[in-house]
Amino acid sequence: MSSPLSADRPAVDALISQARRLRGDVDAVRRDTPRDGADPLGRWRRALCELALHQLSDLDAHLAQLRDEPAPAPRTGSLLSRVGSAEWNLLTDEAQWSADLYGILGRDPADAPLGLDELPSLVAAEDRSKLTAMVTDCLVDARPVDGEFRVVRPDGTVRTVHMMGEPVLDTEGGTAAMWAVLRDVSELRRSQRAVSRTRDSLGRPARPAGAPGTVPPPWHGPLHSPLPARPGLDLAAVRLPPPAEGPRRVGWFDACALGDDASLLAVGDLTGPGTDPGRDAALLIGAVRGLAAAGAGVEELPDRLARLVADTALPPPHTTVCCGHRPGALVWARAGGPAPLLFRDGAGRALDGPGEAALRDGDLLVLHTGAPSPERLRDLLDLAPRLAGAGSAREGLRIVRGAFAGAGEVCVLVARVVPVAPVVP
Asked: Does the pTM exceed 0.85?
């Protein structure tokens, strides 16, 4: 399969030049790092530089592949294999694999490519359910595939493979095929573990959780899970990384059912990171869902959440923004934080205070955390003409992310109003 960007050679050439300049800069830092084997910090810095050099060399090779240069022989010590690709046609049961994919999976190119139902036979038993869930989400809910699993090659070696893919839709919006790219990341993961072990060998005395100068580790909780599909809504969300220094708050977002066709959208943050940010955010999301399930109206959710958390060991909410959606209608309420934004027909407005509004197909709703800022509000509203042309919530999210540059730790949730799918008897 040829690269769809092969015609844009000047742009790819520029990226290759940038990657090679950066690789030279990192190599200079590595050379300036003392080789004193007795210095744990120096060993850690050199390990990080070595990892970065490996990754930049592999990036150079992948960009060359994007430019459709002849494939070089795999270099010794490469952290990444060349990228393989595959497409599975659900209408004809045909499968197409690139030559590189055969190499990644250790298969004979003379063999027929495996179908989606046969692919788990190559996967380690413990990871088969993970692969099945990713493929099912893609084919049934049209969600993109992005995950890792281990494959067992015919020679018995086990490799870690990262797969990214997406559905191919037909003219009626149904899934006609699935397309994916795969790469072997075994060496990359092994090198990252080596860096982690080197860092741990620094032997720094442990500090009490929450002590000055400590930063809670990144967590992988509900914020990294795909938002569930809801009737009449296309959803996308992201948590932007926190600053390296300065005050930190744990941001969160959620989307859940309020009834058969009603949905609750919510974002917020806590007053501090606490001792276990992942647990705190998960418990708060559970509290919001519990209050909603118990019958609390959207307009009272922020205040009731604050009162509920006040009687627990959780850090109190700093801001909470809730929106209740039913096809054609929206209600909202907030306690602190920026107001939800509604974009329609190339214009946008802030939904100040509690209230309700009628919705139309194509409307775009933006909820976000962070300190309210007139400048940021103006920047977001200025994006209205571009957001009017967004064909999906994910595209809308890409457009608004730029307005949050330098804003620190922020959660953004974008909901695009779409026609409700008819119920099939």
From this structure: no
Residue from 321, 335, 315, 334 nearest 415 by CA: 321
DSSP state at residue 71: P
CA distance 90 to 117: 11
d(CA 419, CA 38): 65
- pLDDT string in tens for the chain (425-residue length): 344 444 467 777 778 888 788 878 877 777 777 665 455 566 656 666 766 776 777 677 767 766 654 444 444 444 445 678 899 998 888 999 988 899 989 999 999 999 988 899 999 988 998 898 888 888 888 888 888 999 999 888 888 898 888 888 888 777 888 988 888 888 777 766 655 655 554 444 434 433 333 333 333 333 334 566 688 999 998 888 766 555 566 788 998 888 778 999 999 988 765 556 667 787 888 888 888 888 888 999 999 998 888 877 778 888 999 999 999 999 999 998 899 999 999 999 999 888 999 999 999 999 999 888 888 899 999 999 999 888 899 899 989 988 887 777 789 999 999 987 665 44
Is there a contact between 364 and 385 (Cβ–Cβ < 8 Å)?
no
How far is residue 425's CA from residue 411's CA, in Å, rounded to a whole number? 38
Q: How far lies 132's CA from each of 14, 165, 182, 412, in Å?
A: 39, 14, 16, 29
Closest CA to 158 of 196, 194, 184: 184
Task: Kindly state the DSSP code that residue 230 receives in the 8-state scheme.
Answer: B
What does each C-alpha distance from 61 to 24, 83, 217 come to in angstroms?
15, 10, 32
**Which residue has tokens 């009737």?**
231
Q: Phi, psi at residue 141, to the nearest 5°?
A: -105, 5
- As a whole number of angstroms, the distance between CA 62 and CA 56 comes to 10
**What residue type is assigned to position 35 of the chain?**
R
DSSP letter at 111? Answer: S
Q: Looking at this protein, which amino acid is placed at residue 297?
A: G
Report the distance separating Cα 193 and Cα 185, nearest Å.
12
Q: What is the largest CA-CA distance in the chain?
A: 72
